[in-house]
Amino acid sequence: MQFQKKFFKIIISLFVVIFTFSACSTTKNASNNPIKNNQNVIKVNYIDVGQGDSELIQVNGKNLLIDAGPNESIDKLMSYLSKQNIKKIDYVIATHPDEDHIGGMSSVIKKYDIGEFYAPKKLTNTRTFENMVTALKSKNLKINAGKAGMDLDLGKNVTCQMLAPNNDKYKDTNNYSIVLKITYGESKFLFTGDAEKISETEMLSKNFDLSADVLKVGHHGSTSSSSKEFLDKVNPKIAVISCGKNNKYGHPHSQTLTQLKNRKAQIYRTDVDGSIVLLSDGKKIAKQ
């Protein structure tokens, strides 16, 4: 009888230890993955397309693609999109007609069912731009001229507004860039294309709410963008720079990096980190 009591106590003790250990393990795993990728989050993919830009936003079962990288990264882009099991891209935005932003557009248009297509009112006579237009015509898609004040419908709990361009005559093509702000719950994301200081000044003068938790840094981190005044208004917690390894332009510039570091922003770079995926449940933002 004494032996049975002792044995029973040992079993109980072991059970308590095992249960406690399991509970601790579960808590630890949850803290490492605070946000799970499900239908109640926004998923923002900053796709590594080398020296170029491409972002995929997924929320409420809808997909928004901003830019499509350079010609040399078409296969890389299409492979990434295929892995997301996308059937339809509800909105596609070509921020401006530079090759490093629209190189893969014709391939995207040909493969996917596209809802609406947006680009600024700026034409170029490059082969890449012509290929994009030809692909759009083949699918009977029109180009909606994107400009400040336009809104896109990404479903419940989301606002998606264009903040630029604010003009239709610029010397530099970069300043035609469509700038987009997406707010999901309390989480704010700003996508700036290659908008330079002229466009930034216009947005500031319009008193737009530029504050954002995450900033896709303008023009690959060049000094032509990211003015002090603009960064002061955005005040990002996270800065994402899309650029290619050892690119000939020296992007990102040390001056831009210093400005971001001075503001204690967490910096991610596609040339260093590869594709970057951020998730938000409307309150917290976490890197996947």
Automatic annotation (TrEMBL):
Q: InterPro entries from the entry?
A: ComA-like_MBL, Competence_DNA_uptake, Metallo-B-lactamas, RibonucZ/Hydroxyglut_hydro
Query: The organism sits in which domain of life?
Result: Bacteria
Q: Tell me which stretches of the chain form a coiled coil.
A: none
Q: Where in the sequence is the signal peptide annotated?
A: 1-25
All copies of the Metallo-beta-lactamase domain together span 51-245
Q: Which UniProt keywords apply?
A: Signal
The record's listing under CDD domains reads:
ComA-like_MBL-fold
Q: Which PROSITE patterns match?
A: PROKAR_LIPOPROTEIN
Keyword check for DNA repair, yes or no. Answer: no
Query: What PANTHER family does this protein's entry cite?
Result: BETA-LACTAMASE DOMAIN PROTEIN, DNA INTERNALIZATION/COMPETENCE PROTEIN COMEC/REC2
Q: What is this protein called?
A: Beta-lactamase domain protein
